[in-house]
Every structure is written in structure tokens, then in C-alpha cells.
Design a protein that fits this description.
globular, Rossmann fold, 18 strands, helicase, isomerase, ATP-binding, 5 domains, alpha/beta, 6-stranded parallel β-sheet
Length: about 900
């Protein structure tokens, strides 16, 4: 590539950056750089441009650059942006070692794992790990159980279930709690034998950890934490990555201890050239570190500084990005004000690049139900604005814990506001998706025991529970005996060659049919692999043949008959097929390291199916994108999400309800977490606030529930002192005058309405006046038409504003006139000489007409069957069927779980 072309491309890239972004991107490759990128400051743009600079200006070959991202989506986005930026050059972006820490580590282990004795290991997903743990607990010997029983309570109580839900097979221990404690050790880089030798080890945990690892090893499996742990052991023992010249880490605030150590090792560099060692760029924001429950450490910024200061006697270079392109100045001001409550924090002064700003709204209610009504009230007024400046899809409601959506979902359903859940249930965890993946696994692998066990009797083939358990025990013995594969062990059962298990003739026939189908699918896969390897298929033919293979597996497995009756399940299966047919395996070979030989490397001989399955398991996959993007109408749907699920996303309008002590901050953090836990809760709040681009609504509720477990009686410490300050308003300031409303339209680049066509005075007056009756349960239409036909005034009663019919009844009773009286009512003169009763009658008539035309009747707290002006009937994604409010399901996570003994970590 010519120098002129390289400089021309680089000049184009740099020209689009602001001053601090330019400094960060063009910093010398040789050194340690921390880019502190606050929300909305162009982090992804800077990271991509930084990689382009290293390739163009510093002339680092692509295969000598490592980039770690937090998700598969981020890795793909980075690659796509680089391809676009460098399209005029000859640089092969695909050679960059980019991906999540887990995917990169597995790639290294796949190539050099035999140095540690873990050649050709597969990945155990979360379901596999749970299966292994249950088997481990069920297989504890009497001696081991006696040993556990003899331990002091403080060593075993953390592993006991909170209720009797755990089966006897788990020996009275909670697999999730065991898994969590083992994961914490692995995230700190501690192997099971190292832990056993530590003086202060927990004897119960030591036993569980050792036996769990042995079970994984027996099945040739690594869990997700093992990918990092064993890669760390590999790169600290062998210089297999000493060809790497520069390491970049995205979302650095979300790294844990072992990922920090892996970064150091990845960047260890060339054995003889000091200029190619310890060259690191990290991008992140300590204020957005909210994954402590995954062992992420905000302190890693400080640890990195100290590590390299000790090694080089010079500090890391730190460049802060301060120009915010997302949020208005009012949103940034309150976000920074909240964060300044935290001790020992570097003050951040983000500058909004928007011209206009609107004060955030904050309101305190008296119950979760009232708060939900308040949220809907605000949403409906936003949607009632003329010319539709916003769509439902521009709005998000962000909550701290998933159970908080219950009241909000109920009210959204009641008010016919369409919505969907972000990451409510991951696409790859759905029953039908899990089932088809298990069948893909048994076709891809001879020895995937867990997948075989899950597919043997799903869909049901007539195997009873006892038969399945006997097969499971027999397969476990075969595994221990070192038989070549599960497939061959099952074949031996069909042929009557297994001395441990005798099957009936019918069972043998059923099992034989199952194995024949797998054999047929494998033959097709083998032929397909050969054609793909030889390059005899163009993309269209390859896709067609992959679809054939998928259909064979789907039909002959029995899954098509099982799921075809449910349209959603069928569509989800089709989505897996689409991804399977579009999947293009990447070349995951690594360059030979300096001083290495090809004999040290293991050749990648995985078939197409195995590569596809690993790509699904190793990356943090997105939810069903189609489900999330599906439109109920032209206006889309409101997004509901936990704050953790919203990270990295943004919306023009954001609601943050539940700002009460015990909710945010969460009760477990208040009770047991200490200052750091409270700081993390504050960072959660900060992340939620900074998802908003234009309008921000915050709310809390304080009430005493019917039981001690649901008392929420104090406003959150994070927001308590903000009420009454210049930072927040009780009502939306963008609605307070015609000028501010037109400024809102101008800010979002929409055409303002004509003042003659929209009754703005009515709109703002009723917006304020009708809030109290609405949250107290009165029902009325909120749409553009309702403001045009609204009365000039509403009468205020002692308990708030009430409907005209109710007020008329009060007036009649006040003058001694019943509804059945035939006496002519006395004429009551008002100060202006008008007839009060006549005025009330007109008022009643006007309101009756308005509400009837809108589909509502007076004094009804029930939603109408259909209200075209409010919103079309939605298909709720949360499980609320037939437009009824979703049932309160205890297993979903009860509100009381925050206050129970089991609650010792943040809800995910």
C-alpha cells in the first residue's frame, strides 16, 4: 500500500474527530494509554479509529493486534466499521485477533491446549455446567457426605438452598450457589489444587471445586471460566502470543481480575525488541462499572496504572473524552451531580453538544401501582403531541431488578401501550432453540454425552425415566472406562454388548432408529464439509445444502412435529436455520510465535456444525433481534429493561422508576455490601440516566405494604436531595409554553405543529390538573382529540379533580335536589351572572361526549375493549396473553426476594 494512500485514508479518519478524540487515536503505539470515555462521547468511533491508526500509521500487521470486546455484537461492529474505513486499502481486517476474552482464549487453547493436556476440549455452556454439578452432587460417596456433615455450619450454610426446592439428587446443596463460588475463584485465577493448599480454604468448597473439575475433565469439557483460567496458565507458561505488538481492551470497567492479568500477558510482546512489549490501549469509564456480580472490578484502572508505573517508572497516559454527543446538558448535569456523591472519584465534566435542553422530571408516588400509572400518564401525553414527534420505540423504562416490571406491565397492558422486554429471556435459552441446538450437537460430536442424554427422549420416544437413568449410568461408566465415544456406546447397547444394561426389544428398536437418523445426518454433513473445503460450492448452493441438512435434523428428530403447532416456536427454529445457513467459519489459525514450531500447534479439524455451535456458545449472544425489533404498529413498542440490560443502548426518552431505598440502592447492598456496593448501585443509576438523549423522567414511591417484607418507606438517597432544586421539575418543562414545545420539536428535527391546529393551553393545563385523578384510578382518554374537545375548566374536589358527572351529583345534593326530583332547581347565579347548574350540565355533556367518543364511559376504572386513538392492541412480549395483565408468578422472582436470606447478590 502506498504511503500517499495510507495518509489520505488516515487524514479522512482523523478529520472527523474532536480534539481529545484525535489525541487518543494518534497517541504513539509504543506505550500504555487509558482512554476514559464517558457515556455518549464516541467510544466506539475512537476505538475503531485507534485500530486504523495502528494499521495505517504505525504499520502494525493486522495479525499482531489483539482487540477484546464485551460482546459478539461489539466485535462484529468493530470489524464492519474497520472494513468500511479501510475499504480503499489492501489491509485484511479479518486477520485482527478480535472478539470477547472467552472467544480469544478458546482460540488460543484450541491451538496450543495440548501443552496443558486439554487438546480438543469442547465448551460446557451454563446448562451443561448445571448438569455436571448435579451429577457431581448425586455421586458423592457416603464418606464425602459424612465429611460435609461434620463441617461447621459456617462452611456449608452458604451452599444450602433457601427452601426445599432442591431435589434429593443434589444432596441438600444448591448447585447455583456452588457454581457461583467456584466461578469467583476461577475469576481470580485460582485453580482447584491451589485453593486446596491455601490455609484459609473452605473445605466444602474445596471438595465441590475438585470434584466438579474432575467431572468436566472426564467429559472433555471446559466451562466459560475455564477458557480464561487455562488460557492464563498457558500464556504465563509458554510465549505463544509473543508476536502481538498491541493490545486494545474495550469496556475495561467490566473486566475482572483474570482478564486484567490476561491483558498483561497478551501484551508481553517480542522477546528481543523492547519497543514491541507492553503496548496497551484500554477504553472505558469507571463510572459505568456495574458488573460486580460477575466479578468486574472498577479498580482495574488504578491497578493497571500501578502495574506499569512499577515496571517502567512512568505513568500511563490518560486522555478523557469530554464532549458528549448523546444527552442534553440537563441530563448530564444531574448525572454528574449524582456521581459526585461518591467519595474518591475523579470529577468528570462532560459537555453536551446539543443546543437545547429540558429539565428532568422527578415525582414521588405512594405505591408501585401509582408509580406505574404515573409512567403511563407521561407516556400517553408524549404520544398525544401533534404530528407524532416520538414513537413508542423512542421510549424505554429502566428498572433495577426484573420483578419491578410487574406493576408497570399491568398498567401498560391496561392502557393499551405496546411494549417488549429487552433480554427478558435470551433467544438461545428458549426451549425450542435449546432443543434444536442439542440435536445439532449430537450430529456434530461423537462424544457429547450431555447432549445425547437430553435428546434421547425429547421429543418422547417411549423411554421411561428409569430407562433413561439406567442409560445415563451406563454411559457414565463407559466414559470412565475410556470408550471411544458415546455414539459407539449406544450402538453397543442396541447390539446387546453392554453387560451393565439390558434393553427390551422395543427399546432397542427405538434407540436404533435414533442412531440411524444421526448416522444419516452425519453422512450428509461429511459430504458437505468436503465440498466446502474443496471450494466446489458457491454461496447459494452451500446455503441450499445447509438448509437441507438442517431440515433433515429438524424433521427426523421429531422436533418439527413437536413445535410446528406454535407459530412463535416455529419462527424461532427458522431463525436458527437462517443463522446456520448464513454462518461463514472464520480462519481461526494463529501465527506461529517467535521460537515456536508447527508441531506444537493443533490443527483445527472441526466440522462445519461444530464451528457453528462453538460460535453460538462462546460469544455473548444478542436476544432475538427480530422479536425486539418487531413493530406492533407504525409507532413501535416501549422498551422495558433492567439497567444492566440497557448498557450500551440509548433512547430519546427514558423513565427510571423505583428510586426508593431497598430498590435503588438494592436492599442487599444496603444491608451487606458496604460503601463499594452502594457506589456500584449509584453507578447503576448513572448508567440508567445517561441512556437518555432528550427527555428524562425519574420517580420513586414510598409506602408501607401489607407485610414486613415489602416496606418501601424512604426515597432513594441518590435522589432525595434533588427534589425542589433547579436540577428537576415536577412536570415536563418542554410542555410549559408554546416556545419550549416548539424547541423540543426543533431539537429532535421534527416540524412543529401549527398553533392554530393544536389546543396547547388545554394540553398543558389538563396535563397538570388531571394527574392526581389519573393515578388515583380515574379513567379517561389521553390523545390529541381529547384536548381539542376538553372543557375550559375542571372542578377541584377535596380529594382531587373528579369527573363532571360526579361533580354534578355533588352540586345537586348541595342544593337539596335528588336525581329523581321533579322540582325545578333553583337558579344559582355565579359572579359573572351565568347559570351554574346549566354550566355544569354543559360541562357534563361535553365531557360525556369526549369520553364516549374516545371509547370510555364515566366512572369506569376498566380499560375499554378498544381505543383506536390511544394505541393499537399490542401483542405483549412478556407473557401477558389475551391482553390481560400478566399474572403474578412467584417463580419469576418475588418482590420479597430482595429481603429474603437468599438475596446476597444483584439480580441479573
Amino acid at each position: 500500500m502506498s504511503i500517499d494512500l495510507s495518509e489520505k485514508v488516515l487524514d479522512r479518519i482523523v478529520a472527523e474527530l474532536n480534539e481529545n478524540q484525535r489525541l487518543a487515536v494518534t497517541a504513539p503505539a509504543n506505550g500504555r494509554l487509558q482512554i476514559i470515555a464517558g457515556p455518549g462521547t464516541g467510544k466506539t468511533k475512537v476505538l475503531t479509529s485507534r485500530v486504523a491508526f495502528l494499521l495505517l500509521k504505525e504499520e502494525i500487521p493486522p495479525h499482531q493486534i489483539v482487540v477484546t470486546t464485551f460482546t459478539k455484537k461489539a466485535a462484529n461492529e468493530l470489524t464492519e466499521r474497520l472494513e468500511s474505513l479501510l475499504g480503499d486499502t489492501t489491509i485484511d481486517v479479518s486477520k485482527i485477533l478480535v472478539g470477547t476474552f472467552h472467544s480469544i482464549c478458546y482460540r488460543v487453547l484450541m491451538m496450543y491446549g495440548k501443552k496443558l493436556g486439554i487438546e480438543r476440549y469442547n465448551i460446557a455452556d451454563d446448562r451443561d455446567a448445571d448438569h455436571i454439578l448435579k451429577e457431581m452432587l448425586a455421586g458423592l460417596s457416603d464418606l464425602e457426605l459424612d465429611t460435609l456433615d461434620s463441617l461447621p455450619d459456617e462452611e456449608t450454610v452458604i451452599f444450602r438452598p433457601n427452601s426445599g426446592s432442591e431435589s434429593k439428587k443434589s444432596s441438600g446443596y444448591d448447585t447455583k450457589k456452588i457454581k457461583r463460588q467456584i466461578s469467583k475463584l476461577k475469576s481470580s485465577g485460582v485453580k482447584h489444587d491451589t485453593y486446596e493448599r491455601s490455609a484459609s480454604h473452605n473445605k466444602a468448597l474445596s471438595l465441590f471445586y475438585r470434584k466438579y473439575q474432575h467431572k468436566l475433565q472426564e467429559n472433555n469439557l471446559l466451562d466459560f471460566d475455564d477458557c480464561l483460567l487455562y488460557c492464563y496458565l498457558l500464556v504465563t507458561s509458554f510465549p505463544v502470543l509473543n508476536f502481538v505488538q498491541h493490545v486494545l481492551v474495550d469496556e475495561f470497567q467490566d473486566t475482572n481480575e483474570i482478564q486484567l492479568q490476561l491483558m498483561y500477558e497478551f501484551a508481553r510482546g517480542h522477546p528481543t525488541d523492547p519497543s514491541k512489549r507492553d503496548n496497551v490501549t484500554i477504553v472505558g469509564d469507571p463510572d459505568q462499572s456495574i458488573y460486580a456480580f460477575r466479578d468486574a472490578q472498577a479498580i482495574n484502572f488504578e491497578k493497571m496504572e500501578k502495574h506499569y508505573l512499577k515496571r517502567y517508572q512512568e505513568p500511563c497516559r490518560i486522555i478523557s473524552l469530554t464532549e458528549n454527543y448523546r444527552s442534553t446538558s440537563d441530563i448530564l448535569d444531574i448525572s454528574e451531580k449524582i456521581m459526585r456523591q461518591q467519595q474518591k472519584r475523579v470529577v468528570k465534566s462532560l459537555k453536551s453538544q446539543t443546543k437545547r435542553s429540558f429539565k428532568p422530571v422527578y415525582y414521588n408516588l405512594t405505591s408501585a401501582e401509582e408509580e406505574a400509572k404515573w409512567v403511563c400518564y407521561q407516556i400517553e401525553h408524549i404520544m398525544a403531541l401533534p404530528n407524532t414527534p416520538f414513537m413508542y420505540s423512542d421510549i424505554a423504562v429502566l428498572i433495577r431488578a426484573a420483578y419491578q416490571t410487574r406493576a408497570i406491565e399491568n398498567e401498560l397492558v391496561r392502557r393499551r401501550i405496546p411494549y417488549f422486554m429487552i433480554r427478558g429471556r435470551a433467544f438461545w435459552e428458549r426451549k425450542e432453540v435449546v432443543a434444536i441446538l442439542d440435536y445439532l450437537r449430537v450430529v456434530a460430536h461423537d462424544n457429547d454425552r450431555i447432549a445425547y442424554l437430553r435428546t434421547l427422549n425429547f421429543p418422547k420416544r417411549g423411554f421411561g425415566d428409569k430407562t433413561i437413568q439406567a442409560v445415563e449410568r451406563a454411559l457414565e461408566l463407559e466414559t470412565l472406562a475410556g470408550r471411544d465415544s458415546v455414539y459407539s456406546a449406544l450402538t453397543a447397547m442396541v447390539q446387546g454388548e453392554n453387560n451393565e444394561l439390558k434393553l427390551s426389544t422395543k427399546m432397542k428398536q427405538t434407540l436404533s432408529s435414533y442412531l440411524q437418523f444421526i448416522h444419516k445426518a452425519r453422512e450428509m454433513l461429511s459430504n458437505l464439509d468436503a465440498e466446502i473445503t474443496n471450494g466446489t460450492l458457491d454461496s447459494e448452493k452451500r446455503s441450499s445444502k445447509l438448509a437441507e441438512l438442517f431440515e433433515l435434523i429438524y424433521v427426523h428428530s421429531g422436533l418439527k412435529q413437536e413445535f410446528s403447532k406454535d407459530e412463535n416456536q416455529e419462527l424461532n427454529i427458522k431463525e436458527v436455520e437462517k443463522q446456520f445457513c448464513e454462518f461463514v467459519p472464520r480462519d481461526e489459525e494463529l501465527p506461529l510465535y517467535h521460537g515456536g514450531s508447527e508441531s506444537e500447534q493443533t490443527q483445527d479439524d472441526r466440522n462445519y456444525l461444530a464451528r457453528f455451535i462453538h460460535s453460538v456458545g462462546l460469544y455473548e449472544t444478542d436476544d432475538d433481534k427480530k422479536e425486539n425489533e418487531k413493530k406492533e404498529s407504525f409507532h413501535g413498542r416501549v422498551a422495558l429493561s433492567t439497567i444492566h440490560g440497557s448498557k450500551g443502548l440509548e433512547w430519546p426518552i427514558v423513565f427510571v422508576p423505583g428510586l426508593s431505598e431497598g430498590l435503588l440502592p438494592a436492599r442487599f447492598a444496603i444491608a451487606n455490601g458496604g460503601p463499594e456496593a452502594i457506589d456500584e448501585e449509584r453507578r447503576c443509576f448513572y448508567v440508567a440516566l445517561t441512556r437518555a438523549k432528550t427527555l428524562l423522567y425519574m420517580s420513586s414511591y414510598t409506602s408501607f405494604g401489607s407485610g414486613m417484607w415489602n416496606i418501601v418507606d424512604t426515597v432513594s438517597r441518590f435522589i432525595d436531595k434533588m427534589k425542589g432544586t433547579t436540577y428537576v421539575s415536577d412536570f415536563q418543562d418542554a410542555f410549559k409554553s408554546w416556545d419550549t414545545l416548539t424547541q423540543l420539536y426543533s431539537h429532535i428535527r421534527k416540524t412543529p405543529p401549527s398553533k392554530d391546529m393544536f389546543p396547547f393551553d388545554n394540553f398543558f393545563r389538563l396535563y397538570k390538573e388531571r394527574l392526581t385523578p389519573f393515578i388515583k384510578g380515574e379513567t379517561f382518554a389521553i390523545n390529541e382529540q381529547s384536548f381539542k374537545s376538553a372543557p375550559n375548566s375542571l372542578v377541584y374536589g377535596g380529594m382531587g379533580f373528579s369527573s363532571a358527572a360526579q361533580e354534578l351529583g355533588k352540586k345537586r345534593r348541595a342544593v337539596g335536589l335528588s336525581s329523581s326530583s321533579k322540582r325545578r332547581p333553583p337558579i344559582i347565579r355565579q359572579a359573572n351572572g351565568t347559570n351554574a347548574i346549566s354550566g355544569l350540565n354543559n360541562l357534563t355533556s361535553n365531557v360525556d361526549s369526549t369520553l364516549t367518543n374516545s371509547g370510555f364511559s364515566l366512572n369506569s376504572n376498566k380499560a375499554p375493549k378498544y381505543v383506536s386513538q390511544v394505541a393499537p392492541r399490542p401483542a405483549i412480549a412478556s407473557g401477558a396473553k389475551n391482553n390481560k395483565a400478566p399474572a403474578y408468578i412467584p417463580s419469576r422472582q418475588r418482590p420479597g426476594s430482595l429481603h429474603s436470606k437468599s438475596s446476597n447478590r444483584a439480580p441479573r
